[in-house]
Amino acid sequence: METGKLIYEYCLLRYVPDIEREEYVNVGLMMMCKKLRWMRVAIHIDEERIHALSLKADTDRLRTQLSIFERNDVPESGLPVEERYRWMAAVKSAIIQTSPSHPGILRHPGDIPSSDLISLLDNKFQSLFSSLVL
């Protein structure tokens, strides 16, 4: 049986309450697969961890700011998924930052339907989200 490869990229979304101290809490994950034109973002705000870094953190405002990562029209609708991902993952000096982008490969049995490939990506996304953000 022939084996296929599915390449994906992901980065973490980080809350950095004090840019000069460079301490952060992972608050989300963004993952993209160019071949399948698939991108997924999930956010999790752990208020206890955030307030351990900064007692004055405004988690309601943080939720609002992070919601932009979940929108399909940012930076503009109609962009290819890889361009959207690159724009969203670009390095920023702000309280919301992204980690460097990490590549990955999912190996799978060759010639499986796109819906099964998306299911594999969804499972990998959930695994990464659970281990890196939650």
Gist of the model:
With 134 residues, the chain is an alpha+beta fold. The protein has helices at residues 47-53, 59-66, 81-89, 114-132, and strands spanning 3-15, 25-33, 38-43, 96-98, 102-109. Strands 1, 2, 3, 4 and 5 form a five-stranded antiparallel sheet that branches.
Q: How would you describe this protein?
A:
The protein is α+β, with helices and mostly antiparallel strands and 134 residues long. It is 32% helix and 29% strand. It contains four helices and five strands. It has helices spanning 47-53, 59-66, 81-89, 114-132; strands at 3-15, 25-33, 38-43, 96-98, 102-109. Strands 1, 2, 3, 4 and 5 form a five-stranded antiparallel β-sheet that branches. The longest helix is centred in the C-terminal third of the chain and has 19 residues, at 114-132. The relative contact order is 0.28.
Oligomer: single chain
Shape: elongated
Largest sheet data: 5 strands, antiparallel
Structural class category = alpha+beta
Estimated radius of gyration:
16 Å
Relative strand content: 25-35%
Along the chain, the helix and strand elements come as EEEHHHEEH
